[in-house]
Sequence to fold (296 residues):
Amino acid sequence: MKCQLCKSEAILRSPRLCETHFIEYFERKIGKFIDKYRLKNKKLLVTISGGKDSVVISYVLSKLKEKYNLSLEYFFIRLGIPYFTEKSEEIAKNVTDKIGYPLTIYDLKEKEGFVIPDIKYKPCSYCGMIRRYILNRYAYENEFDYIVMGHNLDDEVFFIFNNLFGKNIPQIQRTGPLTETIKEKKLIGRIKPLYYLTEEEILLYAKLNNLPYIGCACPNSIESTQKKFKSNTVFTREQKLNLVYSILEIKKYLPEEEIEIKFCEKCGYPTTSNVCKFCRTKEKTQKGELKQKRKR
Ligand code: SF4
Ligand code: ZN
Ligand code: ZN
Fold:
């Protein structure tokens, strides 16, 4: 199998490219994303979890920094999950050392007084909310333009199907490569530069560039159904891309979700209730209320 651009051996079937042309193609795709969504000269908060997606996007953005005049800060949240957090932090430090950047570490225990293992009931649903809250608050306080997320094409395909299977149409409105920053609402937008790249491409890019990423799973990841869905997915790259392009078109015809945004009485950040879920969770962990698994 030969590369579609030269006579060298191809390392991937779709797109059919050799090592050199694949790396060029991959980085060009991220560059096009920056152009398309006008991210030149922006201040970006890059969150590294230690997983392959965040590691790869951290590395590529550091390579494109000069060309696009990006201002970057790398951010790691110490969640306090035994072994997993230590391993992830080690990876995040390795990556930032490799690209010559400092790593900002946010210690959940030190700053907020609790860790994820204090939450026994559905820890993943709290963990996601907690990370989103911390990132948004930090990005707002430090005047970032956007938060960089590591979501890839396979994640988006999963998200779309999961919501379609659950007849959860309003959630579909939330898919997409970018959400806008609304400073008056203290909401910092999120960008997903890996949105049009598959997991296979990301893994290959990480391997070709000798990028370390965490090999072990968080002990709570069994809770997630995503892996099962992915392993059963047999769509081609083109089908996945067509699916997200179609959904992005359909989105234009869906009514905008009308959510009344208030500001939390305790922390002042956006919420739909009087006190935000983060503040309520913090209070509950202090009282030890989330220590017990709920009876079904
Ligand atoms: Fe957090 Fe769950 Fe992911 Fe573990 S698996 S890092 S608890 S969201
Ligand atoms: Zn080639
Ligand atoms: Zn709050």
Q: What stands out?
A: Strands lie at 43-47, 71-78, 103-107, 146-148, 189-191, 262-263, 270-271.
